[in-house]
């Protein structure tokens, strides 16, 4: 039992030593010079050039689905709040009176048959559902297309810096 605990502590100390040396080593830049590490006191940060060569389509699918669901919920809430504000201001009743003034006598018209709260909310839910499907599918297709193009040209190169 003591030999396993001592070997575990040795491994942790050796990993700490590796991490300390990795932080203190200078990073080579493209100009050939070296940039001091972040802990060296000069205030200059490290830089790393990375290339995104492949994007996992399954992770893109999950993320796109969650983001489009959030956007769909926000859209439905926005439509509901906007409808309540317009109804509270009397916009629908004013439009209904104007349309009744334009129609010949004896004709009946109620704008709420067409733009009632339940109809507007149902339509916004249907549109949000379609939007969720389309955005998820398009994002996943974009991930596949990116992987194909990145295999041809090498991907997108990013420069990250630690300032």
Give a structural overview.
- With 163 residues, the protein is mostly helical.
- The protein has 5 helices and 4 strands.
- It has a two-stranded antiparallel ribbon with strand order 1-2.
- Strand 1 and strand 2 (34-35) form a beta hairpin.
- Helix 2 packs antiparallel against helix 5 (117-153).
- The longest helix has 37 residues, at 117-153.
- The protein is elongated, with a radius of gyration of 30 Å.
- The relative contact order is 0.15.
Number of strands: 4
User: Shape from CA axes?
Assistant: elongated
Residues in β-strands, percent: 5-15%
Radius of gyration over all CA atoms, rounded: 30 Å
Low-confidence stretches: 1-26
Task: List the defining traits of the structure above.
single chain; mainly alpha; about 160 residues; about 65% helix; two-stranded antiparallel ribbon
A few lines on this structure:
This protein is 67% helix and 11% strand. The chain is mainly α. It has a two-stranded antiparallel sheet. The protein has a two-stranded antiparallel ribbon with strand order 3-4.
Q: Secondary-structure map with pairings?
A:
Blueprint: H1 2-24, E1 27-28, E2 34-35, E3 46-52, H2 57-89, H3 91-102, H4 112-115, H5 117-153, E4 156-162
Antiparallel strand pairs: 1-2, 3-4
Helix pairs in contact: 2-5
């Amino acid at each position: 039992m003591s030999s396993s605990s001592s070997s575990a502590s040795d491994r942790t100390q050796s990993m700490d030593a590796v991490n300390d040396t990795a932080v203190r080593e200078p990073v080579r830049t493209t100009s050939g010079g070296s940039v001091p590490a972040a802990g060296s006191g000069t205030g200059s940060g490290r830089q790393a050039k990375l290339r995104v060569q492949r994007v996992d389509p399954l992770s893109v699918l999950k993320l796109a689905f969650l983001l489009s669901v959030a956007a769909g919920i926000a859209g439905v809430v926005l439509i509901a709040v906007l409808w309540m504000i317009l109804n509270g201001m009397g916009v629908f009743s004013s439009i209904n009176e104007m349309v009744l003034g334009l129609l010949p006598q004896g004709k009946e018209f109620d704008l709420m048959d067409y733009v009632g709260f339940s109809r507007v909310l149902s339509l916004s839910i249907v549109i949000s559902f379609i939007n969720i499907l389309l955005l998820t599918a398009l994002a996943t297709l974009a991930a596949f297309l990116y992987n194909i193009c990145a295999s041809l040209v090498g991907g997108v190169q990013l420069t990250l810096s630690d300032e």
